[in-house]
Amino acid sequence: MSATDVRRAIVRIAHEIIERNHGIEGLAIVGLQRGGTWIAEAITKQINEIESSVTVPVGALDVSLHRDDIGLRPVSLGAITDIPFDLTGATVVLVDDVLFTGRTVRAAMEGLNNYGRPRAVQLAVLIDRGHRELPIRPDFVGKNLPTQKDDDVSATSDGVRITAMNASSK
Amino acid sequence: MSRSIVIKGGTVLNRSGELRADVRIEKEIVVEVGLNLKGDTELDASGCIVTSGFVDLHAHLREPGKEEAETIETGSRAGSLGGYTALVAMPNTDPPQDSVAVIDFVREQGKRAGLVDVIPSGCITLGRQGETLAPMAELAQAGVNFFTDDGFGVQDASLMRRALEYARGLGVTLAQHCEVAELTKGAVMSECQCCTDLGLPGWPAIAEELMVFRDIELVRITGATMHFLHLSTARSVELVRAAKRDGLPITAEVTPHHLSLTQELLASYDPVYKVNPPLRSSEDIRALKIGLLDGTIDAIATDHAPHPRRDKEMSLDTAPPGMLGLETALGVVLAFGDLEIKDAVSLLSWNPARIAKIDKVHGRPIAASEPANICVFDPELSWSVDLQRLASKSINSPYVGRTLRGKVRHTIFKGTPTVIDGQAQK
Amino acid sequence: MKHLRSIDELGASGLLELLQLTDHMAEINQRPVPKVPALRGRTVASLFFEDSTRTRLSFETAAKRLSADTLTFNVSTSSVNKGESLRDTVATITDMGVDAFVVRHKSVGIPWQIAQWTKASIINAGDGAHQHPTQALVDCYTIREATHTSRFDGMQITIVGDIKHSRVARSNIQAFSMLGANVTLVAPPTLLPPDVSHWPVEVSHHLDDVIPTSDVLYMLRLQSERMSQGHVPTLREYSEQYGLTQKRVARLRDSAIVMHPGPMNRGVEMQIDPSDVKNSLIHRQVANGVSVRMAVLFDLLGSGANLGGQA
To answer: Residue A167's pLDDT is what?
Structure first.
């Protein structure tokens, strides 16, 4: 995806979120550290421009301490979680850059429990690259990108790139 | 026909000099020193020094009372492996060696083991309590001529004065463990920067030096003979040097560990390094070595202090002080002592024999008609301590993992080999 | 990092890492549900041979917030007093499946000795007068939180009291210096070790000289036994010369911080109630205890820093 593609996807996702939830009441956007926070902020900014009556809050969640592979591989903590609002009763849209095995999202949902009981949790991702290991599905997707399991996918505001780790993949 | 033993191919070392020669022994005596001797048993001494068996002025044999750590038999065996043919047994047993009954018991056990001459020392004060004198005359009649409260110093100056006066009358030697107890309460290691970092109470050098000074002056006014046990500080050496210059009847000893290990080892938190007096600084070690070279210090004594394994697995402050020493003394002295072999033998054998007043039998020249108490050692052999193979019942040696130089190959006690090729014979 | 036993063993970079990690833990403690599953399945055993309800509870709370299981080993009723050696005690508990020991003992060196007899991580909660590294971490974190700086270069920290017998002082002197602070010790000569020339500190025997230039005033507890042992003539004299009085508080800089590791000996080193001292951060020291200890536990058991051989 190019930078323009990314920008367009974010705008589309913002509209889809408002449409799906019939407005912005009770909405809260939470980006996952580190890859999802810039997207969450971009989406929130977009939503607040479209519907300027109420400001939708945005927060950032570090899921490292909720991962299921602690003790199996080195953990490095991201930036600190910052959720300066009450989640109880809110519709929380989790935002991440790449949806892969689904484990990060599972950890995020567990992490959210520490902050209250949302009315609903939805998932927005810029890229869905497949290879799910848990029953997790996104509600809003920027683009579906088929990949090899060991490919490296990077997503920034400049665009999305896939780097094949395996020489034999295209 | 008596069986003869010949020590072949070694270098005989006496005070008068050294010469390449074989030594033939029959019964309990050396009968000939010469070349190409033959005998029923031949012990190979090639590359070795052949000299008088060592004499330890300071060994804790733990029997009676602490047989879990060592017995007179196992201690004797350890001694023989270290080249010793005589050990002065320290009196801090339980019951202590302040009665003829205990003295006789210790002597008997030594004879029964038959590996070294075990020479019981007597207590200066009853029970080593430092309050009243032990029956020194009675003990002297039972053959004791070396008295100490080792483990403690005699704190009361007037009591020490009387002890010295009494000793002079008997012609016996008093030996002091110099430690002013008030200054070392709770101390675990030498008072130094390392000690400060560890937050431990320290054992200041003056706690030893004050008593050395006091006793030198008491000797001056009483004329009794005094031996200073395990000196550890530079200033102690200076004090003794000056006292000898004044012609006072004073002798002194140092341990192999105080010549080779420093106080910083306590930073490992390993109680194997905890000892009384404590390990000191490299400056102190330097001064002690100079004291050995200029005759200020007369003898090297091991202060062999076995403790059962469990006791040294306690915290630093609760573990009892003391290290093994009999089997490693020679190896440590030659590896770390900066001494010529002849000086080492003088310090390990000839001088201590004289101080213990057994020099008619031990520390003798290797010559015809002399008692056969002999040590044959290889001065160049490098070796390291194997805890499994120590003869001592305990394993608290601080030299595990260190390379020592010089090992005993054979030891002959009263004409019978107690050690052959580094193996104990009984 | 396998153990946390002393500040010098931890080192400057380890110290900074733990302080950073503490920020994450502090955030967890702000959550409505202050708990994460990070150390699920791990067991942390408290081995307190010296009484300290507060520190022990702080560690146990920290372990629980990380979802670890806790075991408390009660020494007074244990077999240690019946002659079982320290080694046997540790081996027995390790066999029950312990991942970390939190140890407090009146003897110096226990955390190092114990490490020979178990594969578990060791956290030193105080060994004699030697070290109390988590207290130093709490203190550094508290200062950091108040001054918003991660390094203390140019900061003047004054530690007052019984330095000689204080493990808190030894750990803090190392930690504060590692972070760049200038440390001054204030005490009568009898409460200082015989020779501190190799420590990175200045020494003064007059508290009043040092008060106006201190950025942090750290008061140590004086135990009443010190008088009977001859270290100070009377507690009253000590308090007059070295205690925190109203007059001294008034002479502190506006920005100065007052700290104390607790528990306090009122009327001795503290003549004034800390709640009356506006610059006191003693309550923050207490509050930060759990976060700091969570950081330590996570670093030792969860961060994968010492996976040793696992993929």
So the answer is: 53
Q: How many CB pairs under 8 A join A and C?
A: 58
Q: DSSP states of C91-141 as a string?
A: HHHHHTT-SEEEEEESSTTHHHHHHTT-SSEEEEEEETTTB-HHHHHHHHH
- Please name each of the domains of chain C with its CATH number: 7-132+288-301 (3.40.50.1370), 133-286 (3.40.50.1370)
Residue to mutate among C81, C87, C107, with most B CBs inside 10 A, is C107
Contacts of B107-110 with CB under 8 Å at 24 or more apart are: B107/B143, B109/B63, B109/B71, B109/B72, B109/B73, B110/B72, B110/B76
Which residue from A62, A74, A116 is facing C307, i.e. has the nearest CB?
A74
Residue C129: list chain B partners with CB under 8 A: 199-200
Chain A residue whose CA is closest to C34: A114
ipTM, 2 decimals?
0.89
Domain with B290, as residue range(s), is: 53-355
Asked if B197 has any chain C CB less than 8 Å from its own CB, the reply is yes
CB contact under 8 A, A71 and C307: yes
CATH number for the domain harbouring residue B8? 2.30.40.10
Residues of B that are catalytic:
303
> Which residue would you say has higher pLDDT here, C252 or C262?
C252
pLDDT of A75 strictly over 80: no
Minimum-distance CB partner of B199 among C86, C112, C170: C170
Tell me what the mean pLDDT of segment B167-171 comes to: 96
Of chain A, the percentage scoring pLDDT greater than 90 comes to: 56
Q: Which residue on chain C is closest to B319 by alpha carbon?
A: C107
Domains and their CATH numbers in chain A? 3-163 (3.40.50.2020)
Closest-CA distance, C107 to chain B, in angstroms, reads 6
CA distance to partner chain A, nearest, from residue C308 (Å): 10
Residue B30 lies in a domain: yes
User: Are residues B100 and B148 both part of a single domain?
Assistant: yes
Partner-chain residue, chosen from B202, B268, B315, that has the shortest CB–CB distance to C107: B315
Q: Same structural domain for residues B216 and B308?
A: yes
Nearest by CB to B199, from C86, C108, C110: name it: C108
Tally of domains within chain B: 2
- Pair B35, B60 in one domain: no
In this prediction the pTM is 0.89
Q: What is the pLDDT of residues C82-127, one digit of tens each?
A: 556 778 888 888 888 899 999 999 999 999 999 999 999 999 999 9
- In a shared domain, residues B344 and B196: yes
Q: Which residues of B touch C110 (CB under 8 A)?
A: 315
Is B418 a member of any domain?
yes
pLDDT of residue C83: 53
| Residues of A in Cβ contact (< 8 Å) with C297 | none
Q: With bands split at pLDDT 50, 70 and 90, how would you rate the model's confidence at C75? A: confident
B316:C107 CB<8 A: yes
B286 and B392 inside one domain? no
Please give the sequence-ordered ranges of beta strands (E in DSSP) within chain C, or none if there are none: 43-48, 69-74, 100-105, 121-127, 156-160, 182-186, 201-204, 216-219, 257-259
Residue range C229-240, pLDDT digits in tens: 888 888 889 999
> Residues 140 to 159 of A: which have CB under 8 A from any C CB?
none
My answer on whether B130 and B176 are in the same domain is yes
> CA nearest C139: which of C284, C36, C291?
C284
* Same domain, yes or no: B351 and B406: no
| Residue B313: CATH number of its domain | 3.20.20.140
Chosen domain end from B332, B355, B378? B355
The alpha carbon of residue C15 is apart from the nearest alpha carbon of chain A, in Å, by 16
Residue A43: C-alpha distances to residues A28, A37, A47, A59, B27 (Å): 11, 10, 6, 12, 106
Residue C307 pLDDT exceeds 80: no
Burial class (CB in 10 A: 0-12, 13-18, 19+), C13: exposed
**In a shared domain, residues B32 and B60:** no
| Residue B1 pLDDT > 70 | no
Range C244-250 average pLDDT: 93
In the structure, what pLDDT confidence band is assigned to residue A71 with cuts at 50, 70 and 90?
A: low
C-alpha C43/C-alpha B25 separation (Å) is 69
